[in-house]
Amino acid sequence: MKTIRHHATLCYYDGVQVFEARDEIGGHYVAVLAESGALEDRYLVVGVEPERLRQFRSGTLDLRSLFLKRGETTWYLATPTADIDAPVEIVPQTGKTIDSRFLPEAGFVLHRRAASSETITEARKRNNLVLELALEPPESASEHRIHAVTLAGVLTRIQRMVTHAYHGARRILGEAGRRDADPDSSLLDVIVPAAPGSFRVLLAAAKRSDMFGQTEVRRALEQIDLILEKAGDPESTLAALKEHRGHFAGAYLNLLRLLVEAKSDLRYSWAEPCTVEATARSVSGAQAIPLVDRLGRVSNLAREIVTIEGTLRKGDSTNGSWRVETEQGVVVSGKTADDGPSLSGVKIDHKYRLVCQEEIEESSLGREKRVYYLTEIEPEP
Q1: How crowded is the C-beta side of 5, counted as CA atoms within 13 Å?
Q2: Distance CA 360, CA 182 (A)
Q3: Which residues of 131-142 are buried (b: 16+ CB within 10 A; e: fewer)?
């Protein structure tokens, strides 16, 4: 029995019409809805070469040609279950020629409009959100190069902005707390270390798009767009960031400081596979200087305040250390802020509501660790 697994939905309309799949050894397949029934759907499946699949994803090859001009003669039928992640058995059919009843009509392409930018082209090829960064440090003026510390710093800060913007967007939408989010939802992967032109880096969403072609990272980038469109006006930027106080504001300020230090401009554009026009923003080294000056004078801009509710498991009034277990079983520990409340008189194994200032410490490997400083503590009613 040969099986494949769903890899990416390529076309969705009242159900999955076309999807990309992989077998156990990484072989590429494309499946198209051939028959739709009341209880189950049947798909025509063929193995395809990666290059021809890329052409189809980018809109330069139609679906019928992809099926007819394939590298192998075997073709299959499959009946997937409702669980899109479950393995799908594909049944080989007799004859080298595909039954015309199952073939799609000629002329079906994923994208009828030509890509208007390289970013959109890459997003379509990869069927994923793509973010392109372009940097202009002094060392790139004469040849295609950038200091490793500058590149690493920019990538780290961009990822932090995306992560914190994503969590902020979830809170605005009233979704569950940050700890139940898929950890990969806000992550980016480097896919092309150095593209031609200015020093350019291409990144893609680590978690691929859903069946509608959208990714979770989209939420974060839309948030970042709103801030960077005000890069030429420090006061407008400050007003916008006051609505996003905390780690996101701190990450943006750190990115600006790096651009000033590296004497570099930063441009970016991003797109999803179905995007008509890529979204682009920029901040120049000259703009970064007054932004750093203005934002750096607001002491609490990067301060993140979080509320923790749970059962107090430890409360040491001598050194101010404490530990709380939430109803979800998550254990959070920290220390009392310098001007915070005393832990004298608190009752172990009783429920409390703690208000903390959350700070991020960075390890030598660039990993983040959250540290909590208690500012208020009240017993839960």
Answers
A1: 8
A2: 20
A3: bbbbbbbebbee
Of 131, 119, 134, 143, the C-alpha closest to 264 is 134
Q: Which stretch of DSSP H or E encloses residue 361? A: strand 351-362
Q: What's the Rg (C-alpha) of the chain?
A: 26
End-to-end CA distance of the chain: 60
**CA proximity to 206, closest of 187, 227, 192:** 187
- The CB density around residue 181, as the number of other CB atoms within 10 Å, is 16
Count other Cβ atoms within 10 Å, centred on residue 222: 13
Nearest CA-CA partner of 250 in 296, 304, 295, 302? 302
CA distances from 287 to 237, 284, 323 (A): 11, 5, 44
List, in sequence order, the alpha helices (H) in the chain.
50-57, 63-68, 118-126, 148-172, 217-228, 234-242, 247-262, 285-295
Closest CA to 353 of 381, 321, 378: 378
8-42 pLDDT, tens per residue? 888 877 788 899 999 999 899 999 999 887 778 99
pLDDT tens, position by position, 66-117? 998 877 788 999 999 888 889 999 999 988 889 888 898 888 887 666 666 7
- Summarised one tens digit per residue, pLDDT across range 175-206 is 544 444 566 778 899 887 655 556 788 999 98
